[in-house]
Each structure stands twice: as C-alpha cells, then as structure tokens.
Specification:
This protein has 5 helices and 7 strands, in the order E-E-H-E-E-H-E-H-H-E-H-E. With 159 residues, it is of the alpha+beta class. The strands form 2 sheets. Strands 2-6-5-4 form a 4-stranded mixed sheet. It has a 3-stranded antiparallel sheet with strand order 1-3-7.
C-alpha cells in the first residue's frame, strides 16, 4: 500500500515528533492514502512555515506486516472516532498504546462542526449528522518506532 506525507521538505527518515499541538490521533508521523490530501498538506505547511517548498514523500508498507502491530481503525466518522479525536484535540490525557491509528481526518471543512461540538453547542448525534455529508479523507498516524520501521521510502514528488 502507498502512503503519502506532505511537508515543506523531503522526509527520508520519518521520526516521531511529540507535538504540543493538538492533533487528531495524538503525537506521531502522519500519512494519508490520498495524494491529493498530502499535496494540500504540503502547501499548507509551506504557507504556515514560510519556508521550503511543497513536497510529498511517498512511502510503501506491506499491509500484511500491519497485522503484527497494534492498530486502531475508525472506518468512518463515528461516535468513538469523535470522542477519540476530541480527547487528543483538547490535549486530555488519553490511554494510547497503539502503534498505528487509522481513520478520517478532521480537516478545514470539518473544523467548524467540530469546534461547535467541542464547545458543547452540538451533541455527538448532531455533530455526526453534520459530518456525514463531508467527504473525509483518511489519515494514518504511525505512533511507535516499531511502526515507523515498516515504512519504505519510494520517492518524492515536488509540487
């Protein structure tokens, strides 16, 4: 399976960066199966950092090897997904021993709904109802060194 990482620089050796910034699945190395999504992330990273150039690093992983890891998968924007990303976005302490977490990405299109949910204006049911029409791309958070070792760099795409 091919996975893409968008950034403002080429990533040859992925590293686990422990961000203070609130991310959907917590700290880790994030990828997506969508080249389009990774391209947008790379352009956003350049804009935010004000340096570098949009680059997508292309990785491959043998899906069979994922069976040896502890993987949490959210197939869609469910109540469990909403609670999981909420706890990470709020920087609440979360029991998180996963090697990889896979699921929909909370992107710019979903943030207005999620922010209203975080503030308590929407309950879970209302937030999920409003998220369903969104075409959410996926994200893969590789959260351990064991998981990172399975990624094989196949090349880069300069945009």
């Amino acid at each position: 399976m091919k996975l893409y990482h968008g950034s403002n620089l080429e990533v040859k050796n992925p590293k686990l960066l422990h961000h203070v910034r609130a991310l959907d699945f917590g700290s880790g190395f994030y990828l997506t199966s969508s080249l389009e999504q990774a391209s947008r992330w790379s352009q956003l990273k350049v804009k935010r950092q004000r340096n570098g150039k949009p680059i997508v690093s292309v990785f491959e992983i043998d899906e069979a090897k994922l069976l040896d890891l502890s993987v949490l998968t959210f197939d869609n924007a469910s109540a469990d997904w909403l609670r999981f990303i909420s706890s990470h976005r709020r920087l609440e302490i979360v029991e998180d021993d996963w090697d990889v977490v896979v699921g929909p990405v909370a992107n710019d299109n979903t943030m207005p709904v999620l922010n209203l949910y975080f503030k308590g204006s929407y309950d879970e049911e209302e937030a999920l109802k409003r998220l369903l029409p969104k075409k959410l791309k996926d994200q893969y958070a590789f959260k351990t060194e064991k998981a990172l070792k399975l990624l094989i760099l196949k090349g880069v795409i300069e945009l």
